[in-house]
Structures are given as C-alpha cells and as structure tokens.
Design a protein that fits this description.
Layout lengths: L8 E6 L8 H5 L4 E7 L4 H4 L5 E4 L6 H5 L8 E4 L10 H5 L3 E3 L6 H16 L2 H9 L15 E5 L3 H12 L3 E6 L12 E3 L9 H7 L2 E4 L13 H6 L5 E4 L8 H9 L5 E4 L19 E3 L10 H18 L9 H4 L5
Parallel strand pairs: 1-2, 1-3, 3-4, 4-5, 6-7, 6-9, 7-8, 9-10, 10-11, 11-12
GO molecular function: NAD binding; oxidoreductase activity, acting on the CH-OH group of donors, NAD or NADP as acceptor
Protein name: Phosphoglycerate dehydrogenase-like enzyme
InterPro entries: D-isomer_DH_CS (IPR029753), D-isomer_DH_NAD-bd (IPR006140), NAD(P)-bd_dom_sf (IPR036291)
Length: about 325
C-alpha cells in the first residue's frame, strides 16, 4: 500500500445514529482532509471522493446501494467480526481492501457460550421460573465436565470458545474447512459439511452433547444446521448459535424441538432479527433466545473505535492493515 499521507484522505463514517465514542480524536486528526458522518440515506451523497469508510452501522447493507458513487474508495473497515451483510459482488471483485473487528468479540462470546452451557446443565431457566412462581422444587442437574462439545467454526471465536469449554472439563471437537486429527484447541477437526465425499460432520454431531455454531456466514455454511444435521444429534443434545441466524434452518429446528429430537437450543442470532412475535421458538420449552448480544460487553464500542484508530494510523502511514478480510469468502450471494 502506498503512503496515504502524501495525498489528502477523506474519511466517511456510516452510522445509524449511534456515533463512535472518542470520535473527537478522529475528527481532529490533522492527517485527514475531512471526516463526514452519514446515515444510510446520506451515504450516496457522501461517498464521492471518500478514500476510507468506517461502517459503524453494524449490519447495514447501504454500501451496496451506494456503490456506484464510490469513485475513490480504497479501504472499508467493518465494526463487526462478520462481514456477510457488508460484502457484495462488486465490492468482492474490486481492489478495495476490507478489514473487520476480529478480536474484539472473541472472549466475550466464548464466555457467553460457557454461560449458556452452564445454564442448560444446571437448569437455570427452570430455577428462575420456579422462583417467579414462588415454588420450591428440588431436582437434580447435570455435570458440564465430561460432556462433549462440537464447535462449528475454528476461527478466533470458535477457538476462544473451545478453550473456555475445555477449562470446565469438557471434551471439545471442532468442525471447519480443513479436517485434521489434531489441533491446539480441538481434539480433532471434522469437515463442516454433510455433503463432503467422506462427511465427517455426521459422526461428530452424533458424539456431541452441545453443538456450538460459531462459523461465519458463507455460501458453504448457509443452512448448515438443517433437518439432516439435527437428526444426527442426540435427543439429549443442545444447539447454541452465536454466529449468524441463517446458518440454522429455524423451521427445521422448531420441528426437531417439538418432536424431541434434541433437548434444547440457545439462539443469540436468528434468521430474522428481531425474532418475529409469530415464531414458535419464543415459547418452545428448552429454548433460550437473546437479542444478538453475546459479544457486547461493557466498553465494546470503545474497543471497536480503538481498533479502527489503529488501522487508520496504518492506512495513513502506508503500513499493513490488521484483520484484512478474504472478500470472496465473505461474499454471500443473495444478501
């Protein structure tokens, strides 16, 4: 990358009304010719002449609509780990560099998954329900230690999750693009597909007490957890999705839960967000629904801004950027 400091750099921040904390330091950076804040409807007017774009409107697809106006764009930074709603065909085919916020959410999401596993094992939802009813109902619960978890997705979030689960005595297997018999964070890694010539996901699903979905949304992972996958799971197993809603076919999941094919599910992400009032998953026993919050801990917005400012320094000085995304892998046709 050439030294951006040799020519004026114009930065645009796409936001949805919630602006980055500490943005004054960005606004007052003498190396920037201008900083423009634009909402989705303002982006087409703001893009001409823009060299760098911070997508702070976390799941906005506005750049695709405004793309014809991006006449000078060289870098897009996403304030998210996943880029499935950001990357589209023209962007994937362009010379524009895309970076994401990988690293900010890894440990918080891993802790959230561990919390969900413990909530299931110790039957915390039933305890809270009994408390609301002022009912003293003794029962036995399960151990977490000694259980088998399958983490689908062996990226940073999946690895952080594996380490948390292993710390409480669980055996943790992974599923990813490249099967292997050993890995620093997983006992083994299975192929994350039921359609591979020699599918290894099927037996991995059959072994698991907990299936944790932590993979990015790509053409290969869309609808990965469908009726076929759910049929492979134990009737005592639970599914946890902290990735993207479309990795799980929710109609198939609702049917599997109703039929007792699996014991429960925790969904921090859903196919449609917010989860529609009409969804049976709201009231299905054994289901925990949370509003896409697993990675959002106190101070997360400040961490996102700090990461962006570090990358902005790199961009302006011509240094190598952090968290460069493989745009073709991140491009999901039809989104």
């Amino acid at each position: 990358m050439s030294d951006q400091s040799r020519s004026p750099v114009h930065l645009t921040v796409l936001h949805g009304g919630d602006l980055p904390p500490g943005r004054e330091e960005i606004d007052n950076d003498p190396r920037l010719a201008s900083v423009t804040y634009a909402t989705a409807d303002q982006l087409p007017a703001a893009l001409p002449g823009t060299h760098a774009l911070l997508v702070w409107d976390l799941f906005s697809g506005a750049l695709a609509d405004a793309w014809p106006k991006a006449d000078s764009l060289r870098w897009v930074h996403a304030a998210t780990a996943g880029v499935d709603t950001l990357v589209f065909g023209d962007l994937a085919d362009s010379d524009v560099t895309v970076t994401n916020s990988r690293g900010v959410f890894d440990q918080p999401i891993a802790e959230y998954v561990l919390g969900l596993v413990l909530a299931f094992a110790k039957d915390i939802p039933a305890t809270l329900a009994s408390q609301r009813e002022r009912t003293w109902r003794h029962r036995e619960t399960e151990r977490a230690g000694g259980k088998h978890a399958l983490v689908v997705g062996t990226g940073p979030i999946g690895r952080a999750t594996a380490r948390q689960l292993a710390a409480v005595g669980m055996t943790v297997e992974g599923a990813g693009r490249t099967p292997r018999s050993s890995d620093p964070d997983f006992t083994t890694v299975a192929a994350a597909s039921l359609d591979a010539p020699e599918p290894s996901l099927a037996p991995a699903l059959e072994r698991a007490d907990y299936v944790v979905v932590a993979a990015p949304l790509t053409p290969a992972t869309r609808g990965l957890v469908d009726a076929r996958a759910l049929e492979r799971m134990k009737p005592t197993a639970r599914l946890i999705n902290v990735a993207r809603g479309p990795l799980v076919v929710e109609d198939d999941l609702a049917r599997a839960l109703a039929a007792g094919e699996i014991a429960g599910a925790a969904l921090d992400v859903t196919e449609t967000e917010p989860l529609p009032d009409s969804s049976p998953l709201w009231d299905t026993p054994g289901v925990i629904v949370s509003p896409h919050m697993s990675g959002d801990v106190t101070g997360w917005r400040t961490e996102l801004t700090t990461l962006f400012r570090d990358n902005l320094d790199r961009f302006l000085s011509g240094a190598e950027l952090r968290n460069v995304v493989d745009k073709r892998r991140g491009y999901v046709p039809g989104t």
